[in-house]
Design a protein that fits this description.
disordered N terminus, alpha+beta, ten-stranded antiparallel sheet, 5 helices, globular
């Protein structure tokens, strides 16, 4: 286990032990606030009841997100209403889906859709995932074999995206997206799923798995708070910029008034 020590903290704070975990897909659920605080900073409404599961709603009320750890199997449910471009859609992600990977999808819900055509497989191929056909299905597997993404199609024509991660002891998670899920959201999820960057977990929250690598690091509360605040600040800034752009957008000029008898030509 490698040791990393961060420098430059104040003398009065007590460092706490954390771990960087890789691959991220096997790092466990993590802190739900990584998702919820970003959404709040982006203008989403918190519909949660005290002591109950997390429930959030988009500013336009077209998307709802819930996280419920109190039921089995528990986890994330994301539901989008039908609009002019897409039909109704939903995504279900297991409780141990890392919050950083969930945030790939939920963060994308706060941003305008890119003009470029989405490609779910591109982020996976860029990280050397093995892609292939398996009968009617198309499959991508991580280089270490612990994570996968699959577009499944049953004989009756029903289709869905199925993804997840599992170690040799059987620990892990699965998630699925209905076919109508906007492709840019699935691509945002696959980008975070394939990312080689480790994620951080506090001591006692690191899964027991022979297939993860960990690096010990000392983190002071102020440093951890600053990292979290930077993400929230970025969300607020992006939301402010979008709202400002809408409010300053020029209105279409009204047509000049023309008398009912038509315009007169001056001679």
């Amino acid at each position: 286990m490698k040791k990393k020590q961060w420098q430059g903290w104040g003398p009065d704070e007590q460092a706490e032990q954390h771990y960087l975990v890789q691959p991220r897909a096997l790092a466990g659920g993590g802190d739900v606030r990584h998702v919820s605080e970003f959404l709040r900073a982006s203008g989403w409404r918190d519909k949660s009841k005290t002591g109950g599961p997390l429930r959030m709603e988009s500013p336009d009320r077209t998307v709802r997100i819930a996280y419920d750890p109190y039921v089995l199997p528990g986890g994330w449910t994301i539901h989008g209403h039908a609009d002019g471009a897409n039909g109704e859609w939903s995504a279900h992600l297991g409780r141990q889906t890392p919050a950083e990977i969930v945030a790939g999808l939920t963060d994308a819900l706060t941003r305008p859709c890119s003009a470029h055509a989405p490609n779910v497989w591109a982020p996976l191929q860029e990280q050397n995932w093995h892609t292939r056909f398996e009968g009617q299905d198309y499959m991508a597997t991580s280089p270490d074999g612990t994570a996968w993404m699959q577009y499944r199609q049953s004989p009756d024509g029903a289709a869905m995206w199925w993804t997840g991660a599992q170690d040799k002891q059987g620990n892990g998670w699965t998630a699925n997206f209905t076919p109508n899920t906007p492709m840019h959201l699935v691509q945002a999820f696959s980008t975070e799923l394939a990312s080689p960057d480790p994620v951080m977990r506090p001591r006692g929250r690191v899964p027991h798995s022979a297939q993860i690598r960990t690096w010990s690091m000392s983190v002071k509360p102020s440093q951890l708070s600053a990292w979290q605040q930077a993400r929230i600040t970025a969300a607020r800034a992006a939301t402010w910029a979008r709202n400002s752009a809408r409010s300053t957008r020029p209105r279409t000029s009204a047509r000049p008034y023309t008398p009912a008898g038509g315009a007169r030509t001056r001679r």
